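Researcher: Structure prediction, please.
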Amino acid sequence: MSASDEPLEIVISYAHRDQALKDELIVHLSPLRRQGIIADWHDRDIDAGADWKREIDTHFNTAGMILLLVSPDFIASDYCYEIEMKRALERHDAGECRVIPVFLRACDWKGAPFGRLQGLPDDAIPVVSAQWPSRDDAFLRVAQGIRRVAEKWHTEKTTAAAKVAGTPPTVSVPPPFAPSGRETTQAIDDSGPGVMIDGKYFESDSVIEHDNSRFEVRIAPLSAEEEADLRALRPDQRPARRAVSFAHGNEGFMAQVRLARSQSTAGHRVWTVELERIDTNRH
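Model: Predicted structure follows.
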């Protein structure tokens, strides 16, 4: 799947007392989800046993759109207002995502940091209001507004991808499964920013070689899909001893993932992947 074909990741920030309204919104977004235009996420998607704060931070740091479901309970929630909304607006102001307030219930939001942003539905009329013939009409306006923004995002992605496709490649990666009669020991040629791990291409910040057999790769994922691919490399998420292909510069080989971890640096998620070369001639 190319970057322009990826769905726009949408994170929904809401107070739990508004869960029923949040669920109604998700239903109205289902056509966009079925058409592959968006992929929505909220905290009820966190699996049992997962670190909930880490999961929330990860999605808030990678989403292309963040919806703030505004209500009296959202304003009153310290976590929604002080943490989630603050992080969302930081990324919005940095041009990393689009934040859209969605007005669910009437409340005094004048003077709130998100008050400068254009919200939904039109004229900031709350979804729960006698001015709408029904809640479905209000949520329809919200869904239509989100569709407009998402389709514009896809158009911009397609245009950017077309421009990139018209430029010469910056790195040449050989097939990682190329047969070899001996175990190569030369240092890898750091000829470009790209690596291939398990058949997937990533732009890397650095590739460090240790003892001709161990390699440390730093990657800042560019999308939610890349984040998921890197998370799947973690040894505890993979069948024991399953080898992966690795290629960089002028060399490719099979490797065992020894470590795959992420950390947040200056608001950006960076992954460190450590791999150990496997001698495929050994039985």
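Model: The chain is about 30% helix and 25% strand.
Researcher: Thanks, that helps.
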